[in-house]
Specification:
Layout: H1 16-33, H2 38-51, H3 57-62, H4 66-83, H5 87-98, H6 103-120, H7 123-141, H8 146-160, H9 168-177, H10 181-206, H11 215-222, H12 233-251, H13 253-256, H14 260-277, H15 281-294, H16 297-316, H17 318-329, H18 334-351, H19 354-366, H20 369-372, H21 379-392, H22 401-412, H23 419-446
């Protein structure tokens, strides 16, 4: 978000900073209670920002980052269509059989698959695909599903941290800051591989080594046939080709002069076209309706509202003030500022959803650029923000969208997911992953 000449005119002569801050606090407070859908609250926040005079409608629209909206929507459409082929169920059954139906081996391989898919698609979509299959496999193995689901939550947030498209905070950072798909891979993937390896060891020591399945239960899983999970071979081939081209286009986005939203939306449109060519007209219309109904519109409109609310706070001047205070607290030193952002992001993202937190932090960090010599000098701070927010989201059930998604599916299937039980396991493990990230950013950027 760039500086602008817009001047707010707030009702009753209130300070724009106080008015926008009050709206932000109210919006965040209600979101945290989870009593009202967060998309509704975010959209009400837009109305309040305009009604009190912090923003006009025209200025509010300027705050929406349509690149993020397009990227999210396009990837959701691509996954919605690809899922109907059965490819993700195939991967889960393949993993179970490759592990010889050993509970510990299955947990490890499903975690790795979850991390890889989260990096290439997005972590919320990935858990929606992997969790139902995991529940089916653990049911056949007659082993507790909780350790598997816990490991998949961690894997989804860790894997999603590795790329631009893997986790919503990264999508926000990449789009609003102008960082490419390749830059995320180069700067974040090395440390994520280490974090993921440590995570696998910890979950194995806590649960994997103790789990046992009877010979009869393992035989049931080994009797599953991966080939039976494929429901549409033509769609499978089309999906693999289109997804492959989209990933390559993300890698080549800079030389192609394309934005991620263009790539994702065009790929989605191409796959929809191919899918509809393969069906009669009446079924084609049904497929289009189904595809668009699969888009997580709650998430999309939550982002729209969030962009405008945070833009209002930026216009009000609070973020510039906070940026100066943070610089004063760290003595204007890049390393100290980076460490503060990393740890504060991790702890706060465990307490509040990491998406609104990152949306607020981006313009705040941008406001620090002049103090460090320009926007090109503060790149390490973006990697600190990404690592802190994405990995910190593992700390509690409300820290990231993927966590709540898994908990919801689990409880609908009779698997209790208690907030305190999860936190007692997750928070210390999250701190370990952030400590590893601290060492990494010290070694790579500040040593």
């Amino acid at each position: 978000m760039q500086p602008h000449a817009f001047e707010p005119h707030v009702v009753f002569g209130m300070s724009p900073m106080w008015a926008s801050t009050i709206v932000l606090v109210v919006v965040y407070g209600v979101i945290i209670t989870e009593k009202i859908n967060r998309a509704i609250i975010a959209l009400l926040g837009i109305g309040l920002m305009i009604l009190v005079g912090v923003l006009t409608q025209e200025e509010a629209v300027k705050g929406i980052d349509f690149n993020t909206i397009g990227l999210l929507t396009g990837m959701m459409i691509l996954v919605s269509i690809s899922r109907r082929s059965g490819m993700f169920q195939y991967m889960a059954v393949w993993s179970a059989k490759k592990a010889n139906a050993s509970p510990a081996g299955i947990m490890l391989l499903l975690s790795v698959c979850t991390a890889v898919l989260s990096a290439l698609l997005d972590n919320v979509t990935t858990v929606l695909l992997v969790v139902p299959v995991t529940l089916a496999i653990t049911r056949d193995l007659e082993v507790p599903p909780y350790p598997f689901l816990f490991a998949e939550i961690f894997a989804s947030n860790i894997g999603g941290t590795a790329t631009l498209i893997g986790d919503p905070p990264n999508i926000l950072i990449g789009s609003l800051v102008g960082l490419s798909f390749n830059e995320f891979i180069v700067h974040l993937t090395p440390v994520i591989i280490v974090v993921m390896a440590v995570q696998l060891v910890m979950t194995h020591l806590m649960w994997g080594r103790k789990m046992r399945a009877t010979a009869e239960a393992r035989a049931r899983v080994m009797a599953m046939k991966e080939i039976d999970t494929i429901e549409d071979w033509l769609l499978l081939k089309q999906s693999l080709v289109v997804l492959g081209v989209v990933i390559v286009a993300f890698v080549l986005a800079r030389p192609l002069h394309l934005e991620p939203a263009t790539i994702a939306m065009f790929g989605a449109a191409v796959l929809m076209l191919l899918d509809n060519w393969a069906h009669h007209a009446e079924k084609a219309a049904e497929n289009v309706h189904k595809t668009f109904s699969d888009v997580e519109w709650i998430t999309i409109f939550f982002f729209v509202g969030l962009f405008v609310v945070v833009h209002g706070v930026e216009v009000g001047g609070l973020l510039g003030l906070l940026a100066n205070k943070l610089l004063e607290a760290t003595g204007g030193q890049m390393a100290a500022t980076g460490y503060a952002i990393l740890w504060a992001s991790a702890v706060l993202s465990a307490i509040v959803d990491n998406i609104p937190f990152v949306a607020t932090m981006i313009p705040l960090i941008k406001a620090m650029a002049p103090a460090f010599g320009g926007a090109d000098k503060i790149e390490p701070l973006w990697w600190c923000l990404s690592l802190g927010a994405c990995l910190g989201g593992n700390g509690t059930l409300i820290g990231a969208s993927a966590n709540l998604t898994v908990a919801g599916i689990a409880e609908r299937n009779g698997v209790p997911f208690r907030f305190m039980t999860y936190t007692l396991y997750a928070f210390p493990m999250m701190l370990v992953s952030v400590a590893i990230s601290h060492v990494y950013v010290w070694w790579r950027y500040f040593s």
